[in-house]
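Batch manifest, entry 17 of 40.
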Amino acid sequence: MAIARHVVKVNGVRRTVEADGDMPLLWALRDHLNLTGSKYGCGAGLCGACTVHVDGRATRSCQVRLADTAKKTITTIEGLSKDGTHPLQKAWIEYDVPQCGYCQAGHLMQAADLLQRVKAPSDADIDEAFRGLVCRCGTQPRIKKAVLAVAKAGGRNEPARSEHDRPPPFSRRDRGGRRRVAGRAACRRRQRENAQTGQAGACSCAGSTQRARRLDPDQPRQHDRDRHSASGNGARRFDLADDAAGR
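Output type: structure tokens
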């Protein structure tokens, strides 16, 4: 292993890395430059979690040698925008794309590359562009909606969307098996952090007592007698519909 000094241009700034030239670009970014938005997924270029732009094209950084990046321009998720206001990042939040968030930095960089090359991509174009990326949470349908919305808006910071596109609230079950629906504002705050920094993590409010009131307002409320158990301690019991309504 031969340690050498390498000068790389990352997010518009020339940085110096002292490392073995055979080191994958991914580890130079994460371990030496502290740009941790790009994630390690497979190490074989098969999942896309480590995707960055090299000379403007989406590239799997785990498959690029540090020594091969001389005189090339590298953009990571941190350089997509300074304050997280890139149209794609805003669309990712608006369409509630992330779930665990681990792979989303790679998907955002792939989407940015696609829209640079194809201004009005079709469904087939998106499927082809994302063929080499993996999301085990199954967010691909929301990714496609977000990309199409940004393309339809012409790259503006406010992607067009209609009310029927709004996804259902993010829900989980608590320890008692009861369904809890997280507050939408808190979910979006966590998703905004994921979109801006590529950090992984489930919604921080998923287990909180905040619940979104998302049921049909015309739906009748449950009777009080259905909201209490028949046990001696009189503890409250929520059924699924009542709990989802936030009561």
